Amino acid sequence: MKRTSRISAPLRRVALCAVVVLAATSASVAAADEAAGPFGVTAVVGASPASARVGALFGADKAGNLSGNHFCTASVVHSRQRDLIVTAAHCVDGVGESTGLVFVPGYRDGQAPYGVWRLGKRYLPDGWAHGQSEDSDVAFAVVAERDGKRVEDVTGSNRFAAGVATGATAVTVTGYPDSREVPVSCTNKPVPRSVTQQRIDCPEFTGGTSGSPWVNGDHEVVGILGGHEQGGSTPDVSYSVVLGREAAELYKDATGD
């Protein structure tokens, strides 16, 4: 399971040999951002317009004390209202019901360079709402305006694309491991696990990376880290629902189109 067990859980400092890999060169990170390789290498993501679209989720009660308190990942996707994020259903279903949730795009080292945005209405597929099917582990949430602005106007967005064949191109996965205060990313080519699930081999995508977007070279979100085993039971293999008709209909509901 890629998400942490509690939204208020403290950072788990994990000593892993892959720290060397995570210290990859900036050139490697740039190549990964372009979905061009090197494949299967996980590296810290530098601050950029592309990384600003990805952020961490927190309980609203942690908005004034962000450091060490993120628990899942989400990203901004284009909508007519310019106020929509996508994540895994298991990241937002029943989580933060008493206090609410906030999204911090571009989160880094306890700082919120693009602001702290409160989540409003959440959209969950029927397959998740009526049985928590692993084949329906995707969700959208509307983000409230902040200082008269909408989140997409501040961070930009990727497009949400259902119906893209698994492995049609390489994708870059970007997320926030709960053991780190910066995002990491990895580029590789997904492969089918089943008709409804896809997998990717990328090292050190640990707890906290649930909800990470899988973005292709056309800046389209074609997967969301989650699904089988809520994203995977090991750090080196991650999963996503194949974004098909159910995901497309959910996006339509969330955008009102």
CATH architecture term of the largest domain: Beta Barrel
Strand arrangement, major sheet: 1-10-9-13-14-8
Tally the helices: 6
Q: Helicity range of the residues?
A: 10-25%
Can you say what the CATH homologous superfamily of the largest domain is? Trypsin-like serine proteases
What does it look like?
With 257 residues, this protein is of the alpha+beta class. It folds into two domains: 19-47 and 159-243, Trypsin-like serine proteases (Thrombin, subunit H); 54-156 and 249-255, Beta Barrel (Thrombin, subunit H), CATH 2.40.10.10. It is built from six helices and 15 strands. The protein has helices at 19-22, 26-33, 89-92, 126-129, 151-155, 245-255; strands at residues 42-44, 54-59, 72-77, 84-87, 101-105, 117-123, 139-143, 159-160, 171-175, 184-188, 191-192, 197-201, 213-215, 220-224, 237-241. The strands form three sheets. A six-stranded mixed β-sheet has the order 1-10-9-13-14-8, covered by helices on one side. A hairpin with a 4-residue loop joins strand 13 (213-215) and strand 14 (220-224). The chain is globular.
